[in-house]
Amino acid sequence: xxxxxxxxALNITLFTAFxxxxxxxxxxxxxxxxxxxxxxxxxxxxxxxxxxxxxxFWRALANTLxxxxxxxxxxxAIGLLLALALNRRLLARSFLRSLxxxxxxxxxxxxxxxxxxxxxxxxxxxxxxxxxxxxxxISWLSSPYWALPSLILTTLWVRVGFCMVVYLAALxxxxxMYYEAARIDGASALHxxxxxxxxxxxxxxxxxxxxxxxxxxxxxxxxxVMTGGGPGFSTTMLVQYIFRAAFVTSEMGYASAVGVALxxxxxxxxxxxxxxxxxxxxxx
Amino acid sequence: MTTGAYLSRRLIDAACWLALVAxxxxxxxxxxxxxxxxxxxxxxxFEAVARLAPSNFxxxxxxxxxxxxxxxxxxxNSVIIAVVAVVLTVFIxxxxxxxxxxxxxxxxxxxxxxxxxxxxVPIQVLLVPEFLIVxxxxxxxxxxxxxLPRAAEAFGIFMVRQFMVSIPGRTDRSRPPGWRRGVHxxxxxxxxxxxxxxxxxxxxHLHVALERFRLASGGADGSGHVHHPARPQSAxx
Lengths: 284, 237
Prior knowledge:
Oligomer: heterodimer
Shape of chain A: globular
Low-confidence stretches of chain A: none
CATH class of chain A: Mainly Alpha
Shape of chain B: flat
């Protein structure tokens, strides 16, 4: 009876010290006015009231939702397609797999730097290509319209490799006999995909959905490097906003309140997904 | 299989392969471009017409990095932290994810959701309290102070659990698996799926460890003896 608790004891201890306690502290601080120096000053729910009436918060929330909508479904769909293709017996497929995984190994700061350079209005490669093709230049990162799509493209470049690896592992654990049985029953390739592959990669889909949404909601360094949240506030995400409140304007209480709100939002999303996928047996 | 089916299969393979190679070129290009920009002569970087290959290789940028900054110290710190963090993280999170997937015990769901919840808190909110706890433990400016806070990784637990869940069998609601059966299941040679997972968690954790390193060392003390290449503000992706 004690075995499972023994197995998770070390993990839970570390979690308590470095995640649960800090989280409780953050919730506590969100009811205070605190500049990081001196004693926190209790102000009840005033931080949350301020948040509800702050247009910048809503702007950051909308940006974050747009960014998530642009990155999560696309990266998962492309990742699944890549995994399906790379699961076939092809020439040099391990090498191809590692090429797709490679962008994930580059740190976000380096990715942001090189992407900002490629998207640069005057010296960037993309505009040079556009000019050569006879099109006009696009102000990728300096116009409010193109800044978010540029960020989404860069994120996809990093993230499809991750989705590919997770789906690939899931595909490899599907026993071949299911496909053989389906073929004997006369199922076409499309039928096999819909009725064998998709249901059996469901745990991986759930994992990717939850992780991708969390990553998209937490995006920070890529944006910090590429646009700094601008132009204007067109690419300011919730975490940028938290960072600004915490470490630029030193309003730790307000920053914690936004953090708790973001936490509640992601938690809500996850519970919804969990409910939706719970019918599928074995997912959770 | 008929010849026609075989031929059409080979045709699809060829089409897939060509598309994959084209995609791989797109994936690898920015990394090449990073390298090409690093070795280009300065004047060529600011030309409006982008040249695919540098006209001349100049290694002065690399020389400057190696001589002006304590890069070797950084590499040394990164290697120590990455190795220790990966070993520790893979061990405890594999064990934990496995337990959540294959055992049924009171409090399991609550604990799992608490851990999953920990993944959802933006790290910027936790930085200050984490710093206070690390300093209270006397781990400030040490490698351990960077490794421990991120050793228990909700991401790893969640990932391992999802893969273990998809391995058929072994889950027995009425009879929890015994100690020996459990440990056997975890051993690499027991199951190809689990083995693949070991390696993947290892790869990803190396990556995550490096990411967290930048964050945690920044959170601890940017000017401390733990030198790091990134700015202190950088955070988890």
